[in-house]
Amino acid sequence: MTLKLDNLQAALEAALGPRLKALVRDRGEITVTVDAADYHEIAKLLRDDATLRFEQLIDLCGLDYSEYQNQPWEGRRYGIVSHLLSITHNWRVRLKVYAPDDEMPAVASVTELWTSANWFEREAFDLFGILFEGHLDLRRILTDYGFIGHPMRKDFPVTGHVEMRYDPEKKRVIYQPVSIEPREIVPRVVREDNYGGLH
Fold this sequence. Notes:
The structure is a single chain. With 199 residues, the protein is of the alpha/beta class. The chain has one domain: NADH:ubiquinone oxidoreductase Nqo5 subunit (Beta Polymerase, domain 2, 2-Layer Sandwich). The chain is 19% helix and 28% strand. The strands form 3 sheets. A 5-stranded mixed sheet has the order 1-2-5-4-3. It is globular and about 65 Å long. The model has no long low-confidence stretch (mean pLDDT 89).
């Protein structure tokens, strides 16, 4: 496994050169970070370069780093992580990119490179509000079309903004402000002196 990772790391460093912003090797996996300006071009290189040949995009997801590991985060707030697989070489890589603008997060779409990115990018748009430039059908995929906000952002309220219910008088579903009263939930801890027979 170590030799295989050595070969993959050497191939990535040779192919990406100075455009490689970071390469982290941890727990038998490699994560590469690139700039948003180079993201699409590097994704194409990862797919087409004969020494790499990442033919499949297995997963793509959005991330909100606003309080990474419950600590203030110093870098960009929104990121995209893609997991790529090379069937030819039987190896994997994680590709990470950060959206350069926290107010209007956007990166290039990779749907023309891997069609499997289509719904993944729609999900990241729906849940995090990350735009994918060049995506031909960027619309919500999990929430309702009238949904306001992006529920996986860390500043989105747990209760949401609106709730829906069926109104028997109007004979249709209606939206109304959330009627849930926020409350502090503190778990009750039972402490016994003799718990488990220990004295």
